[in-house]
């Protein structure tokens, strides 16, 4: 670990213990404890991982979660979260939390968005009220939320955007990264509350599918010497192969001693490719959203639990799984709960899917440690996608 | 405990350890363990206590739950439940389960109901299919479900029904009770599965607000010498005072050594009156349904958690409460979860309300044991309803 001001301290940093090619296994230290990497973060959009209590999230094996600045600034508002003791207190989650900056949601959810040099003005998707988000405001909000990792505000163009559009987004995002850094350093000097634990700031690479822009974006961020770097603007419709081309270069674009976070990616195949390229952190709504739609992730691929084939099946969802759901419920019972519209169905499947993502990530990590990652990766792909 | 064939055995019976006037504290033995009485049973209508896992139900202090024959016979069907190992297995609940007979739901939910001497034919509220329910079928279904306590099929007339209508319902319910007893004894001789644990059958008193009909109904049931007796047809709009008049007579109408179950009652004030009259068992959707509507039960009355007054309140819902929700979440956090429409809101409030009903019932029981029930009862009423 480096010990310069921006990255390292006793409270934040990545320590890599094993590598296999470009793949890395390590430990991320945060003010709310250490987590093994690669790490998958379930998404707790509005102050709760949907359908489960934090106790169930932890029991399922998740150790770090994500919160959404966009949603929380609109409701209940960052000041209210701060009054209630910060996001950890609000969510009753004592482990690390990463908050995104709101950029992605502004570009995907908000109405009547107007972009300028200094930020973006939009209408709330909840009540139509006018809201302003700038790099400084994004940092200030995340400071009030009190997350362990805050993200810079960025501009995330659509997956099919042309080179000029993406180039402009890269330039603006780089400018906003610098502004976020200044605002972040300011919060460290004058925290809103004396007891607040120090927070880290990650920059976000943009550049779409254009290698030159990805390189330009990375260079600008690395120049800022931030505690961590995220790869943004993937998983926005560009496809697995285009994502791999982006990932191919991150090993050379970002310093080895900083965590690398691939935003919004959770498809197991993509995660394996990303780990192989040197990514340490992931978040995605897949395990939770798909669970609510009755889809289970297993080592043998996915199962739709509404399917009639499970109606009288007495086996657990996955024989080898140790999650609460698989230890206690049959496939037939789960199907029934979904067909009857009982809330317990989504809850039980969310528990299983979170457990799957936690064990999947742990298996990847172990394979790196055992120097067996490429073979293990191929085996997992065969299990999950081929048969 | 008596040891005649219908009531007692090693596997089912009520042992009363303390009385205070007509109020009773005891232990109900069932094939799935013992529970302290008075006992409150949360309602698990369709194979799940809504919004919570069985682990959360148990952690909240609930020890016996209720399932609904009507709902389960329609979906997933009693045969399917049996194939999946019975209702305990389906729900992952290892404690006692009582199933109602479906009578009440047929009269409140089903479409195009047609009543005859032998049973009732109706249309499913789910898919409009034609369904037949007779005393024999009700017992057979509950036998397939494998509950610890099955209820007779009865006719439950509306609260404002006239004397003649109620008299007819009493006669029919008495006739059906006898038929249920025959069918039940038959299941004991030839159980559908050799491993099935023995089940108890309760009769249901009807009679509306008419003392003569209540007496007639009770006499007919007691004649059948059943393992337990329920008071039905209350909490259907007749009001607290009319309910008390019904309850006043049960001490003399039913044998002391059999459990008495007041169906569908959970309003704390009504429960106190019922325990004073000699009731041992309760069920009600109040704690779970009201939780989903953001209403919390506390020792100081009810709280609507959507109210703006809680927005920045950092105190737990109830300072003295030891439930998971109160140990981990602020009022402000709970309000936020409800305002944001997060499923975790209903889950957390269900946990609290179940815990409240478990501790409320335990406090009643302790007061009986301590010979302090009337004073305690008055104190609780003052806390909950007066201030």
Briefly characterize the structure.
Chain A has 387 residues and is α/β, with parallel strands linked by helices. Helices cover 42% and strands 20% of the residues of chain A.
What does this structure look like?
Chain A has 387 residues and is α/β, with parallel strands linked by helices. The first copy, chain A, is 42% helix and 20% strand. In chain A, the strands form 4 sheets. An 8-stranded parallel barrel of chain A has the order 4-5-6-10-11-12-13-14, surrounded by 5 helices. In chain A, strands 1-2-3 form a 3-stranded antiparallel sheet. In chain A, strands 7-8-9 form a 3-stranded antiparallel sheet. In chain A, strand 10, helix 7 (163-189) and strand 11 (200-205) form a beta-alpha-beta unit. In chain A, helix 7 runs parallel beside helix 8 (211-223). Chain A is globular. Mean pLDDT of chain A is 94; it is low at 1-8. Chains A and B meet through helix 1, helix 4, helix 14 and helix 15 of A and helix 1, helix 4, helix 14 and helix 15 of B.
């Amino acid at each position: 670990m480096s010990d310069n001001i921006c990255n390292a301290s006793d409270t934040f940093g990545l320590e890599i213990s094993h590598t296999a090619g470009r793949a890395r296994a390590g430990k991320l230290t945060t003010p709310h404890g250490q987590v093994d990497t690669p790490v998958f973060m379930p998404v707790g959009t509005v102050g709760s991982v949907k359908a489960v209590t934090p106790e169930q999230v932890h029991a399922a094996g998740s150790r770090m979660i994500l919160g959404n600045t966009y949603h929380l600034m609109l409701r209940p508002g960052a000041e209210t979260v701060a009054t209630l003791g910060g996001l950890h207190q609000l969510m009753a989650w004592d482990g690390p939390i990463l908050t995104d900056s709101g950029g992605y949601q502004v570009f995907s959810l908000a109405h009547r968005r107007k972009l300028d040099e200094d930020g973006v003005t939009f209408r709330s998707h909840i009540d139509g009220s006018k809201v302003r988000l700038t790099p400084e405001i994004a940092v200030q909000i995340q400071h009030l939320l009190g997350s362990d990792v805050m993200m810079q505000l960025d501009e995330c163009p659509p997956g099919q955007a042309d080179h000029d559009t993406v180039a402009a987004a890269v330039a603006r995002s780089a400018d906003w990264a610098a502004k976020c850094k200044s605002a972040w350093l300011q919060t460290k000097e004058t925290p809103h509350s004396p007891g607040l634990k120090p927070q880290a700031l990650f920059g976000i690479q943009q550049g779409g599918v254009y290698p030159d822009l990805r390189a330009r974006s990375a260079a600008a961020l690395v120049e800022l010497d931030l505690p961590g770097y995220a790869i943004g603007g993937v998983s926005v419709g560009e496809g697995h192969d285009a994502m791999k081309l982006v990932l191919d270069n991150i090993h050379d674009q970002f310093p080895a001693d900083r965590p690398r976070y691939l935003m919004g990616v959770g498809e197991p195949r993509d995660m394996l490719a990303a780990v192989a390229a040197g990514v340490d952190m992931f978040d995605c709504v897949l395990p939770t959203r798909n669970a609510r739609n009755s889809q289970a992730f297993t080592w043998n691929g996915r199962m739709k639990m509404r399917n009639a084939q499970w109606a009288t099946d007495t086996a657990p969802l996955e024989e080898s799984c140790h999650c609460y759901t698989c230890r206690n419920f049959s496939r037939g019972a789960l199907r029934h709960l979904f067909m009857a519209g009982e809330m317990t169905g989504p809850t039980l499947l969310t528990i299983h899917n979170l457990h799957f993502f936690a064990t999947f990530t742990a298996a990847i990590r172990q394979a790196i440690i055992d120097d067996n990652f490429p073979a293990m990766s191929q085996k997992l792909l065969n299990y999950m996608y081929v048969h």
